[in-house]
Amino acid sequence: MPMSALTDRRNASTAKDAAPDRVDTPEPIALDIAAIHKLLPHRYPFALVDRILEYVPQQYALGLKNVSFNEPHFPGHIPGYPIMPGVLIVEAMAQVGGVVLTQLPGMEGSFFAFAGIEKARFRRPVVPGDQLIMRVELLSFKRRFGKMQGRATVDGQLAAEAEMTFSLFEIE
């Protein structure tokens, strides 16, 4: 049941091709910017995810942000040595997490807002030209609250990490 907004990266193998001892786990799905915009309300200059490289429902998403010198925060954030503000790195991770949360059963079309950030650590600067890869895993979801673990890397090096709590937010 492929959706037009999703790019399905699953193998074309059938169930009889699968090994008998293999546990069936969902194959990752990729989402382009159009699909992300259908799931999240963020737009320029605050849309901070360019692509979802992998999305496994109810588990995790792996997002990509191409960091460009043309972004509006760089001229004023450390002139002569532009670095991406840590709060925007955490926000980018939160947007990747939003893809997971908005696709939970019964949550389609919902919006989740930050309710808390814990254990945030910044390990290396993120600069124009970098590709920020963010893996955000769902730790728990109870009632209207979700807890997620995010890790952002550049060239395989940890740039930032945080535990994030989200609350279902009613938009009228």
How widely separated are the two ends?
A: 30 Å
Structural class: mainly beta
Strand order of the largest sheet: 1-2-3-4-6-7-8-5
The largest pleated sheet is described as: 8 strands, antiparallel
Structure overview:
- The protein has 172 residues and is mainly beta.
- The chain has 2 helices and 8 strands, in the order ββαββαββββ.
- It has helices at 33-39, 86-102; strands at 6-8, 29-31, 51-56, 60-66, 111-122, 131-142, 145-154, 157-169.
- An 8-stranded antiparallel beta sheet has the order 1-2-3-4-6-7-8-5.
- The longest helix has 17 residues, at 86-102.
Q: Could you give a quick summary of the protein structure above?
A:
The protein is built from two helices and eight strands. The protein has 172 residues and is mainly beta.
What distinguishing features does this structure have?
172 residues, eight-stranded antiparallel sheet, disordered N terminus
Mind sketching the topology for me?
Layout (H helix, E strand, L loop, with lengths): L5 E3 L20 E3 L1 H7 L11 E6 L3 E7 L19 H17 L8 E12 L8 E12 L2 E10 L2 E13 L3
Antiparallel strand pairs: 1-2, 2-3, 3-4, 4-6, 5-8, 6-7, 7-8
